[in-house]
Amino acid sequence: xxxxxxxxxxxxxxxxxxxxxxxxxxxxxxxxxxxxxxxxxxxxxxxxxxxxxxxxxxxxxxxxxxxxxxxxxxxxxxxxxxxxxxxxxxxxxxxxxxxxxxxxxxxxxxxxxxxxxxxxxxxxxxxxxxxxxxxxxxxxxxxxxxxxxxxxxxxxxxxxxxxxxxxxxxxxxxxxxxxxxxxxxxxxxxxxxxxxxxxxxxxxxxxxxxxxxxxxxxxxxxxxxxxxxxxxxxxxxxxxxxxxxxxxxxxxxxxxxxxxxxxxxxxxxxxxxxxxxxxxxxxxxxxxxxxxxxxxxxxxxxxxxxxxxxxxxxxxxxxxxxxxxxxxxxxxxxx
Length: 335
Ligand code: SF4
Fold this sequence. Notes:
Elements: E1 2-5, H1 11-24, E2 28-31, H2 37-46, H3 53-65, E3 71-73, E4 76-79, H4 88-91, H5 93-100, E5 106-108, E6 111-113, H6 119-128, H7 136-160, H8 163-167, E7 179-184, H9 187-190, H10 199-205, E8 208-211, H11 218-225, H12 235-250, E9 255-261, H13 265-281, E10 286-291, H14 297-316
Helix pairs in contact: 1-7, 2-3, 11-12, 12-13
Iron/sulfur cluster (SF4) binds next to α3 and α13.
InterPro entries: CoA_activase_DUF2229, Dehydratase_Activator_Redct, FldB/FldC_alpha/beta
Domain DUF2229: 2-216
Organism: Oxobacter pfennigii
């Protein structure tokens, strides 16, 4: 049996887990491949206009797969952490796809909701495997094996910050003298190089080292996120905020770029929080890039170049005074 996995949304977080699980059960896993112009166009044509870019791209990946496989894995994700939720678009994703994309094969729309009890994981797994086997022991074995590989992938992502290299289990050098740029955002905005126009590679090419949330110590992220007056219950929103606050606390990045999706409620809140904290607590270059389906690269390149120049100048010319009269290297006003 051929099971398709669309390379969008939480593919960037859980691909190896899902692939290993299905392959262990004897299925052949087929992926839709990297996002490209035609996938984006398919997505824009089939998806409702109001959706964010990552959801449109996901539609395009499903279009790409639909004639190549026996079924497509599109889980209905409610929660991936205890007492937290993720964006409601994930809960309605299978229904959105079924209503927008014609001529679909079978959709495996397992519900994943681990907000309350661990018991639900087992029923989710049985539901995901239902077209292949009903043998509970075999399914659980495949899951634990997949979980082990997933942990290795997560460790690799921590050190490389690169999705492809982490899949290859390659580690890069630990000591790195490049200027570091913190990248904030959802994983599908950070690791989909078509959607973000290769921002990480552009930074690397110019001698910077991008630091993604997956590279930051999880305990510190949780600790810093918990300093908010109210618990933030969106899993990825909390991670983005905790990472941003960790960058500011540890002073280990020279600038921060927030990659947000046009029309994303969670991003609109988080980017505002982050900007306020930066203004209040530490003066470092900050840039927000909003991603949508427009694919002209020149605008992004210009902003990125200006941002990189600003980061370099701050370090190279400490006595630089900004046009409005304040030192660009600190919060003090120039008088
Ligand atoms: S969190 Fe934002 S970017 Fe992600 S699916 Fe929801 S609306 Fe789209």
